UniProtKB/TrEMBL annotation:
It catalyses: 2 pyruvate + H(+) = (2S)-2-acetolactate + CO2. Keywords: Thiamine pyrophosphate. Residues 389-543 form the Thiamine pyrophosphate enzyme TPP-binding domain. Residues 565-575 have a biased composition (Acidic residues). Pfam families: TPP_enzyme_C, TPP_enzyme_M, TPP_enzyme_N. Belongs to the TPP enzyme family. This is Tartronate-semialdehyde synthase. Residues 192-328 form the Thiamine pyrophosphate enzyme central domain. GO terms for molecular function: acetolactate synthase activity; flavin adenine dinucleotide binding; magnesium ion binding; tartronate-semialdehyde synthase activity; thiamine pyrophosphate binding. GO terms for biological process: glyoxylate catabolic process; isoleucine biosynthetic process; L-valine biosynthetic process. InterPro entries: DHS-like_NAD/FAD-binding_dom, Glyox_carbo_lig, THDP-binding, Thiamin_PyroP_enz_cen_dom, Thiamin_PyroP_enz_TPP-bd_dom, TPP_enz, TPP_enzyme_TPP-bd. It comes from the Bacteria. It comes from Caldinitratiruptor microaerophilus. GO terms for cellular component: acetolactate synthase complex.
Length: 587
């Protein structure tokens, strides 16, 4: 049996599990792993500027590929800096593995320098957390970590490695080792038969496609099933792209923030919802009494405890989304020939046409809707978009168009500011053949802007489109309308908009350009794409938008009376009272 250091064995496992990139920051208590990593010809390491940035880059890589992302740090604050990234990955079911160094085993109880019990700290935000106390366990802990990250509802795993464990030699033969099998549960056939019965009997059914459809790689099956039974599809924010935005059965998004008018209206007219891989987040459902009234629910999820957690379905099915959709398609084909579009499908298509929102504004300062109009028209369906949390994300959900799975990456549940800058690095490395565009807000950008230097250093090109209102916009809005204040949310100073983001990125070696007139947007986007690819680094387009622009959402807008008009909305298609309960205002 060959002998090698425990860290050489760990790196051999990482290579065999398909790891291409590691995002991290070296430190004294993780250097044996870095020594072994330095000899790898298959794994490229990027030195990040913050451990949180490392976890988000690994996260972005995992979302773009479906593979496991890897982030590395030393002991102490490196691990605590990773907690936000672990929480983000756990919340959105993203498989990443974080690795930290630790003081030697004999020092664990002595309050040594940069020694903290990170294994216990991260337990609430990971699927599994390891403190490896025996060197011989290292390769098997790493193998199990990859299996756990992938199996069931995917998620993060943390491994903490004492320094003396890293330095030890062990017996390990990589030639007789391999990845552990991943079990994917299939559905109960009787439950599938009942689900198809309920779907075919419904007059106005919808398929709610959640992030689990994309995680399972089941988007093509979803489309085939929807087409066979002719049932419209409303993706959740995490499931956006599971059906193309130009597909006849695509409806739009449902919710109180990231939503479309057609999506909300169609949902409230539905009588049955087949939810696949969705968790019914509160910003999707709004008021549950309104959300559930008048319709039945079938809930399919790979995690048994998700079923019944938010609402009690009429039928629950535990299954991997891919396995479930295969079974549903087979059962539907046995019951009925391919169906023709009926009255309900035509109604949904009419809603999509008639409940559009105006986007073609020429106002200065620029209205947010105009920014997304230009984004939709300039970037093709192959573009991978990355965005985080704020008014810009809500506008994105209301105005953007998404056509393919894993082409709209968003930190949905946790919503950490700053996520998009490092996540775009991981996404572009994951998909070097595709354009990557990070849509950011000015405040979110400032959280982890130092990671721009990483993209410059390692020649990772992508475009950043910033909507700058010089506010904590998402907080300003409820502060104004719910609390009647404008306290602590203004970022402007010295008579201007605040930080000069163009100069900041130029200081790190990236090009930037500011846009103040809507007629400049198209040219600026073309310039950013051209310069980013030419220089092999990020390029920023900073768009100065209307400072007081609001997003149509929730109770915080109850007092607003001025909204942009809707295109082609005849009287018979006016928004109904039930929609005003789910989405408390029209826009």
């Amino acid at each position: 049996m060959p002998r090698m250091t425990a860290m050489e064995a760990a790196v051999r496992v990482l290579e065999d599990e398909g790891v291409e990139y590691a995002f991290g920051i070296p430190g004294a208590n993780i250097l044996p792993l870095y020594q072994a990593l330095s000899r790898s010809t298959r794994i490229r390491h990027l030195t990040m500027r913050h451990e949180e940035g490392a976890t988000h880059a690994a996260d972005g890589y995992a979302r773009a590929t479906g593979k496991v992302g890897v982030a590395i740090g030393t002991s102490g604050p490196a691990g605590t800096n990773m907690v936000t990234g672990l929480y983000t990955a756990q919340a959105d079911s993203i498989p990443i593995i974080t690795i930290t160094g630790q003081v030697p085993r004999a020092q664990l109880h002595r309050e040594a320098f940069q020694a903290v019990n990170i294994t216990e700290i991260v337990k609430p935000v990971v699927k599994k957390s390891y403190l490896v106390m025996e060197p011989a366990q290292v390769p098997w802990v790493f193998r199990e970590a990859f299996r756990i990250a992938r199996e069931g509802r995917p998620g993060p795993v943390h491994i903490d490695l004492p320094l003396d464990v890293q330095r030890a030699e062990i017996h390990y033969d990589p030639d007789v080792d391999g990845p552990l099998p991943v079990f994917r549960p299939g559905p109960n056939p009787r439950a599938i038969e009942k689900a198809v019965d309920m779907l075919l009997a419904a007059r106005r059914p919808l398929i709610l496609a959640g992030g689990g459809v994309i995680l399972a790689g089941a988007s093509d099956l979803l489309r085939q099933f929807a087409e066979h039974v002719q049932v419209p599809v409303v993706p959740t924010l995490m499931g956006w792209g599971s059906i193309p935005a130009d597909h006849p059965l695509y409806v739009g998004l449902v919710g109180i923030q990231t939503q479309t008018r057609a999506g909300n209206q169609a949902f409230l007219e539905s009588d049955l919802v087949l939810a696949i891989g969705a968790r019914f987040a509160e910003r999707h459902t709004g008021d549950l009494s309104v959300y559930t009234q008048g319709r039945k629910f079938i809930h399919i999820d790979i995690e048994p405890t998700q079923i019944g957690r938010v609402l009690e379905p009429d039928l629950g099915i535990v299954s991997d989304a891919d396995e479930a959709l295969r079974a549903l398609l087979e059962a539907a084909r046995a019951r009925t020939a391919p169906r023709e579009p009926g009255e309900w499908v035509r109604r949904v298509q009419s809603l999509r046409r008639r409940l559009r929102r105006k986007m073609d504004f020429d106002d200065v300062p620029i209205k947010p809707a105009r920014v997304f109009k230009e984004i939709n028209e300039y970037f093709g369906p192959e573009t991978v978009f990355v965005t985080a949390i704020g008014l810009y994300q809500i506008w994105s959900g209301q105005f953007q168009q998404v056509y393919r799975p894993r082409h709209y990456l968003v930190c949905g549940q946790a919503g950490p500011l700053g996520w998009e800058v490092p996540a775009a690095i991981g996404a572009r490395l994951a998909r070097p053949d595709l354009p990557v565009v990070a849509v950011v807000g000015d405040y979110s950008f400032q959280f982890l802007l130092e990671e721009i230097a990483v993209a410059v250093q390692y020649q990772v090109p992508y475009v950043i489109v910033m909507l700058n209102n010089s506010y904590l916009g998402l907080i300003r809005q409820p502060s104004k309308y719910q609390y009647g204040m404008n306290f602590a949310v203004d970022l402007a100073y010295d008579g201007g908009p605040g930080m000069d983001h163009v100069k900041v990125v130029e200081g790190m070696g990236a090009p930037g350009r500011r846009v103040v007139h809507p007629g400049e947007l198209r040219d600026a986007l073309a310039w950013a794409v051209r310069e980013s690819e030419r220089l092999r680094r990020p390029a920023l387009v900073e768009v100065m938008i209307e400072r007081e622009a609001d997003a149509a959402m929730g109770p915080s807008l109850d007092k607003i009376r001025e909204f942009e008009p809707v295109e082609d909305l005849p009287e018979e298609e006016e928004v109904t009272a039930p929609q005003r309960e789910l989405e408390p205002v029209g826009d």
